[in-house]
Amino acid sequence: MVEFDPYSYATHENPYPIYRRLRDEAPLYHNDQYDFWAVSRFDDCKSVLKNFSVFSSAKGIELQGRPDAAYFDVMTTDPPNHTRLRHVMSELFQPAKMAELEQLIRTTARSLLASCRETGRIDMIADYAGRLPMLIMCRLLGYPPEDDARIMQWTNDAVHTEEGVQGLTAAGIEGLINLGKYNEAVIAARSQASLSEDLVSHLMTALQSGRINHLDTMGYLQLLAFAGHETTTKLMGNAVFQLWKHPETLQSVLDDPALISGAIEETLRYDSSVQLQARTTTRAVEMHGRVIPEGAKVAVLFGSAGRDDRKYERPDVFDIKRNSRDHIGFGYGLHSCLGAPLARLESRIALEELFKMTGRYEVDQANARIVHSANVHGFQSLPLSFKAGA
Amino acid sequence: MEGAVINSLPGMEGMCGGMLSCGTCHCYIDEQWINRLVPPKAEELAMLESMDDRRPNSRLGCQIRITDDLSGLVVHLPVEP
Lengths: 390, 81
What we know:
Chain A is of the alpha+beta class. Chain A has helices at 9-13, 16-25, 42-50, 81-89, 95-99, 102-113, 124-129, 132-141, 148-159, 170-192, 199-208, 214-227, 230-245, 247-255, 260-270, 302-305, 340-358, and strands spanning 28-31, 36-39, 55-56, 121-123, 276-281, 285-287, 290-292, 297-301, 361-363, 369-370, 379-381, 383-386. Chain B has 2 helices and 3 strands.
């Protein structure tokens, strides 16, 4: 019998062989220990994500349930509430809007790389990918740069998990609460101030016009602090790692940076930074000859969907020339990632600037460490070496 | 797009959830209605240009804001592949 434990460190190291067995042997899997169900085939993942009236997000999208310190937001609501919240922001994140940020992202990326240029060493996460998306989000929100370090600390604490512990650590809960206090203060200060062009101003306008209420505003601010960095950080790191594992592909990307976009899309399919999201059933539902009861947690395994040979030819081959957006690395449908155009843009520019500096690089695999999380897959430390000053 | 996806109409994918990123909410607006819509912006046109089955009345469903004066709008969805 195949066993899938999303909290085990061994699963985090390499979940893909387990996913294959789940798809082949237990397409609707039940974990008795933690009492959740899991779907692993591409089509099943898609249909669960699509069918929001049966597979609801309103009880949270994590297996362990919602942390008490969390706010409801666009990720943890269903239509029509979800539709109302999503419309407040969706136009702001469309690709043409994001393209205006190209220069800000490039300048920020270069300034992060500057201190590593002469040393020939960089920790892809701690020095670069763990900072860039978060700095950009803080600038988009309009937060002052002197607050960057503490916001990063709170959000890092909140996403850290420990083996055998379901859910947040004590430091994580404290991080969420501190972030909440910070954002409450932001709303209070901004309600007295004249508004500008940033995202907080946009939310304040929606708040003052009655489109959203105070809790909706808090939900958005809390969400954006995380959405700002966690998954994009892992995406950049995973892309750099996979390219290093495939030296001929890396060479082709170094020779032709226009291939970077394809490498990012392929990373989203092959080694997605989001591995799992949960839904909760609103009624009993039958799949693969078994009945999931009402009120059950169902894990949607994004990382498995990308490796399904029912969907992709040679799914275990990392091939950046597929250049297909036909993956669910950003989710699917109404809950599909609002920030996907920003994540794509940031990742492309981050890799362009990195490769300009490094040329060919090596990964210090012995000192690379992955994140231990049931939901997110990627590195917390990924040291690279390259020829300095090239 | 949302109207079709929320009501599970076949032929409307809406994969990116309205972010003008995937083109899977491509639809055809009935001839009688096409001129009554707000015309597409450059980004929508660029996406439509890349589509094999584009027709003069093609639009992306996610870019059509539904208002009261569009009551009765007729939209044809591409057949599912």
